[in-house]
Amino acid sequence: MELDKILPKNGPSKEEVSKYLDKYKNEYIVIKCGGSVLNNPKLFEKLIQDIIILKKLEFNPIIIHGGGKKINTKLDSKNIKSKFIKGLRVTKKEIIDIVKEVLIDFNKEIVETFKNFSCKAESFTSDNNSILLVEPADEELEFVGVPIDINIKIIDKTTRENIIPVIAPLGLSKKGQVYNINADTAAGAISKNLKARRLLILSDVEGVLDKNNKLIPEINSVKANDLITKGIVSEGMIPKINNCLDVASNGVKGVVIIDGRKSHSILFELLSDKGAGTLIRK
């Protein structure tokens, strides 16, 4: 493998990368993309290129994307106000149709971007290759679902054909109704079912921070509960951390919260000694 031709000049060194190739070869690396990385064209393009590098290194990257800001923009254009309960959008009938439209369009855009860089990718949405069977999360949230079954075989088949799956957080009920799924929840469920080596959650935060706003490189359930009890981890970060701990306790060797705004953050996390975010283990 000619690493000089694969690796970016301002990424991890060839010597470091060589140490990690065997660790992740043919392993599932689930990448949940959210925040600025999806809305900033330069960050988005760099992320796609980094994921293609992982594929060239013979890893199995799987993408789950959000689309909250795009959904907000579309709802605003129609003067539809959103209500949130514990960070989840109450998804009425008129809203689920818009959510579905936005996420499917965006999913196609991501797949086309991979293809523009000569990399095979395939859409997984509620309309195409639907893999997420859901049940309602809560009556108050209406058309918000939680996964109860995942068709892992089709993901496995796709990756063996050297194609990157790009998954929208949309599921179908047993009656065929479309439901919106929190992207972190969808990524966690898929990671657990695949027994992925890593779940990388890209967002607009550096990772988990201590009381002095310094990055904590690694935490476990005991440390996480201590941070929550002391109020150092609060508000929207609490369900994110709890989801990460659940995933790390159910067959995934590590979950990492990474700042997607930083250049080559997923490469530094997987392929360097220093990492790039907060690694969460059980």
Order of helices and strands: HHEHHEHEEHEEEHEEEHEEHHEHE
Approximate strand percentage: 15-25%
From the spread of the alpha carbons, the general shape counts as globular
What is the makeup of the main sheet?
8 strands, mixed
Total DSSP E strands = 14
Structural features, described:
With 282 residues, the chain is of the alpha/beta class. It is built from 11 helices and 14 strands. The protein has helices at 3-6, 14-24, 36-39, 41-56, 68-77, 93-116, 152-160, 183-194, 221-229, 237-248, 265-271; strands at 28-33, 60-65, 84-85, 88-89, 121-124, 132-136, 145-150, 164-167, 170-172, 178-180, 198-203, 218-219, 255-259, 277-280. The radius of gyration is 18 Å and the shape is globular. The relative contact order is 0.16.
Helix and strand topology:
Blueprint lengths: L2 H4 L7 H11 L3 E6 L2 H4 L1 H16 L3 E6 L2 H10 L6 E2 L2 E2 L3 H24 L4 E4 L7 E5 L8 E6 L1 H9 L3 E4 L2 E3 L5 E3 L2 H12 L3 E6 L14 E2 L1 H9 L7 H12 L6 E5 L5 H7 L5 E4 L2
Parallel strand pairs: 1-2, 1-11, 2-8, 5-8, 11-13, 12-14
Antiparallel strand pairs: 3-4, 6-7, 9-10, 13-14
Helix pairs in contact: 5-6, 8-10
Highlighted features:
282 residues, single chain, alpha/beta, two-stranded antiparallel ribbon, 42% helix
In short:
The protein has eleven helices and 14 strands. The protein is α/β, with parallel strands linked by helices.
